[in-house]
Design goal:
single chain; 6-stranded parallel sheet; 18 strands; 12-stranded mixed sheet; Dihydrodipicolinate Reductase, domain 2; binds L-homoserine; alpha/beta; 14 helices; Alpha-Beta Plaits
Length: 419
């Protein structure tokens, strides 16, 4: 029998306990051994819970228990979780975690510490979708050309409701929190950080690249308004928060931001809390992974799959997918050099000569306009909605600064990259 201890028995931890119980016979048949949760750690022991496992508020009760084979870390956060996981490894316990923030900062140190102790983390990216298994094992014959996808269910849920039902940003964020999709601090979702943590994990498996969140371009959905959604609809786009990793020669581009995605693309059709990730390999071509990216049962499904894997073999596999360093190391591409088409919303005082001055600044920065709309905003102001041809990020950023400084421009232009 394999015994599991869970650190952090919240929504996902409770689902792990329930799945291991409700699906015990199929799980035992698949693993070749019975798996039970022996104990769990919670912060507040007096809170009423419908669980028949031993509960404690002391992590050491689990970490030092000689009967526990696998420690499941579901407490979240970075520093405390790092201490707990290190201690579990020091005590030779296999580890399963869903903690993307921990891995975004410490995955290489954890890989060095784990060595031949099994360490699995399928639930850290895209909840129930087995994307880590797919990338690490199923696609291991390929050079990965790109990874692009919806990696945050909260943002996708919000953008879908804002687009389809016109629901206000604050109202829909509250709803996503109530449904249990959002992180404890929802800034991680709407600011793009949660998606960035996941992208960095995937980029390590695909490219062996050791970047931290601070090293890459991360933007959220906070500035998107109904004007942008209206433009998107009129020109056949959906607005999605995407994580993008792209190989370009010896460089890898890593970025998270809102994108205008043509409605004809599969990613544009992924709505609600669902996640969807496209991976292009040089031999396999494009593969697409779709499923629930958040929620107790979906996330616990991936956690339990890792527990079964460990119970089956008891062996580790290279945690980040590389058994030895990759020849010809890839480096991170500078954000300045990103090439894209761009959409800009410029709020201006509606008076003579404004458009001419704005378009002159586009020309000065060598940026070519593809499409333009003007929509009145109030009696004296209007929104200029402009899409460009392919341009270079640093030129766009310089131009935005110049436009923002004009006296008839009411606030810094909003920019969304077009896929
Ligand atoms: N807050 C995350 C999301 C949960 O909305 O996708 C899953 O990582």
């Amino acid at each position: 029998m394999i015994k599991v201890g869970i650190i952090g028995v919240g929504t996902v931890g409770t689902s792990v306990v329930q799945i291991l119980k409700e699906n015990a016979s199929v799980i035992s048949a698949r693993a070749g051994v019975d798996i039970v949760v022996k104990s769990g750690v919670v912060k507040n022991l007096s809170k009423k819970r419908d669980l028949d496992i031993v509960l404690t508020d002391n992590v050491d009760d689990v970490l030092n228990d000689p009967e526990i084979d696998i420690v499941v870390e579901l407490m979240g956060g970075v520093d405390e979780a790092f201490v707990v996981v290190k201690k579990a490894l020091a005590n030779k316990k296999a580890v399963v975690t869903a903690n993307k923030a921990l891995l975004a900062y410490h995955r290489y140190e954890l890989q060095d510490m784990a060595k031949d102790i099994p360490f699995e983390y399928e639930a850290s990216v895209a909840g129930g979708i087995p994307i880590i298994n797919a990338l690490r094992d199923g696609l291991s014959a390929n050079h990965i050309e790109s990874i692009m996808g919806i990696m945050n269910g909260t943002c996708n849920y919000m953008m879908t409701k804002m687009t389809n039902e016109g629901v206000a940003y604050d109202v829909i964020l509250k709803e996503a929190q109530e449904l249990g999709y959002a992180e404890a601090d929802p800034t991680f979702d709407v600011g793009g950080f949660d998606a960035a943590h996941k992208l960095l994990i995937l980029a390590s498996i695909a490219y062996g690249i050791d970047a931290k969140p601070e090293d890459i371009l991360i933007e959220g959905i906070q500035n998107i308004s109904q004007f942008d959604i209206m433009f998107a609809k009129e020109f056949g786009y959906a607005i999605k928060l995407l994580g993008i990793a792209k190989k370009d020669g010896n460089e890898v581009e890593l970025r998270v931001h809102a994108c205008l995605v043509p409605q004809t693309q599969m990613i544009a059709k992924i709505d609600g809390v669902m996640n969807g990730i496209s991976v292009v390999g040089d031999k396999v071509g494009e593969t697409l992974y779709y499923g629930a990216g958040a929620g107790g049962n979906a996330t616990a499904s991936a956690v339990v799959a890792n527990i079964i894997d460990i119970a089956r073999s008891g062996k580790s596999r290279p945690m980040l997918g590389f058994d030895k360093p990759l020849e010809g190391k890839l480096t991170l591409k500078s954000t300045d050099n990103i090439k894209s088409k761009y959409y800009l919303r410029i709020n201006v005082s509606d008076k003579a000569g404004v458009l001419a001055r704005i378009t002159k600044i586009f020309e000065d920065n060598n940026i070519s306009i593809a499409t333009m709309l003007q929509r009145p905003c109030s009696e004296n102001s209007a929104n200029l909605l402009i899409a460009t041809h392919t341009s270079i990020e640093k030129d766009i950023q310089a131009m935005i600064q110049q436009i923002a400084a004009l006296d008839f421009v009411n606030f810094t232009p909003v920019m969304i990259r077009i896929v």
